[in-house]
Amino acid sequence: MESNVSGNEPPGTAWPAAPPPEPRIDLAPGRTAFARVLAGVDSTGASLEAVRQGERLRDPAGSLDVVTALELATTAQAGFAATPAAAQLEAESEEALESARAVAPDASFRVVQGRADQVLLDEARAVDATLVAVGSHEISRPVGIALGSVATTLLHSAPCSVLVAREPKQEGFPRRILVGVDGSAEAEQAAAVAFALGERLGVEVWPIAARDKDFDISAVDGIATNVRIEDGSPVDALVAAAAQADLLVVGSRGLTGIRALGSVSERVAHQAHCSVLVVRRP
Predict the structure, then answer these.
(1) Cα–Cα distance between 190 and 65 in angstroms, integer?
(2) Which 3 state secondary structure label does DSSP give 116?
């Protein structure tokens, strides 16, 4: 039987213009298309990009909730200046929501008191979100782990898929989707999501696999056709190939806490120079 997997092309070689067929997998209704999207927004442009991309990826009949966290506990050390400091934070939160309204006017908007990462985790569970979108503030992975960046916390603990949004190089996000496939059930789930998005948005989808010590060509071949194979570690292969896309989709093994620190999806989400969608089984 002839393999569907393509050979090892030189770096920078494009995939075929026509997208491969959809993977052979069915997902529960509402999960592939992201029917309930939650986006976290603050005063940064990165968070507005998360709102913009979350709005783009959500199902047309679905919902988008935009939340900004108001952490008043930080004003406790201000002493007599605590009241004006709290007022300033409240004003900044409202300004962040106003900016988000210009990006996604049909979304719902609210301010929730608490630390940003915990607010988003709680809200994701409360609304049964299928996707949480946050901006990348380009904090390094070790620093993100040590200081508890919002993106790092969500990648470790969110109950649903996570989008780490970065500003695309061109308008019209996404113009090209890359999906990592390694033959696992999680990769099959990621491929199903990527191809469903590609079909709905009219975007090319490029599947890629890394030929490492665990490489199983028959398992990869069972997920999608025209898979591009790169030698090396999955993290290096995906990060390098992501330079040719503006959305990289990877599966999550569902690891949490300390076990998640070495996961491919978490490392790729921090290192890639494009937006990364980490698909987690509900």
Answers:
(1) 23
(2) helix
